């Protein structure tokens, strides 16, 4: 199986599709929250919230909260590409030597962003998972599960 096929299979895994959707929904939220700052400053708040919601959603399911939080964090970290692109373009404006350096730092920045946002999303998912096991939240989650079973999902 090629790398492309594995990525597509990972994205469309039905077991944690809600985590994928939450990660995708956190992207525009991150961009909106970050528009008031420079392109290289991003808030991880929307990704943490999405991770929390993923943990809350998966608290009564067999899917691990860490797996859902990781998925949400990786997908939600994609706005860091914008910061990387602006950093690279500023390097090209100075000289080609700075451009190479900018590419290296941009790749390191993106790797750091993926790791950091995934970490914070996992923390949010673990908190959501713990909170989802408390009786009032467990009732809400079980009602959601019973409704989805009645509708045939």
What does it look like?
- By secondary structure, this protein is mainly alpha-helical.
- Helix content is 78%, strand content 0%.
- It is built from seven helices and no strands.
- Helix 3 (45-57) runs parallel beside helix 6 (96-132).
- The longest helix is centred in the C-terminal third of the chain and has 37 residues, at 96-132.
Features of the shown structure:
7 helices; 78% helix; elongated; 153 residues; mainly alpha
> Compute the gyration radius: what is it?
18 Å
Low-pLDDT stretches: 145-149
Q: Average pLDDT across residues? A: 77
Proportion of strand residues: under 5%
- N-to-C span: 29 Å
Query: How many helix segments?
Result: 7
Helix- and strand-based class?
mainly alpha
The succession of helices and strands, N to C, reads HHHHHHH
Taken from the alpha-carbon principal axes, the silhouette is elongated
Taking the sheet with the most strands, its summary is: none
The beta-strand count equals 0
How much helicity do the residues have? Answer: over 70%
Question: In summary, what is this structure?
Answer:
The chain contains 7 helices and no strands. The chain is an all-alpha fold.
Helix and strand layout, with pairings?
Elements: H1 3-11, H2 17-34, H3 45-57, H4 65-76, H5 80-94, H6 96-132, H7 135-150
């Amino acid at each position: 199986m090629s790398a492309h096929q594995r990525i597509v299979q990972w994205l469309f895994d039905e077991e944690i599709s809600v985590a994928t959707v939450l990660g995708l929904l956190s992207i525009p939220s991150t961009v909106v929250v970050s528009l008031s700052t420079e392109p290289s400053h991003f808030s991880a708040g929307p990704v943490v919230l999405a991770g929390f919601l993923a943990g809350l959603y998966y608290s009564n399911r067999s899917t691990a909260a860490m797996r859902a939080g990781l998925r949400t964090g990786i997908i939600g970290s994609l706005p860091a590409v914008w910061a990387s692109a602006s950093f690279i373009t500023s390097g090209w404006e100075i000289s080609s030597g700075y451009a190479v350096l900018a590419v290296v730092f941009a790749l390191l920045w993106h790797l750091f962003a993926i790791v950091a946002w995934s970490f914070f999303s996992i923390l949010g998912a673990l908190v959501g998972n713990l909170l989802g096991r408390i009786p009032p939240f467990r009732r809400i989650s079980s009602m959601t599960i019973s409704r989805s079973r009645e509708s045939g999902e």
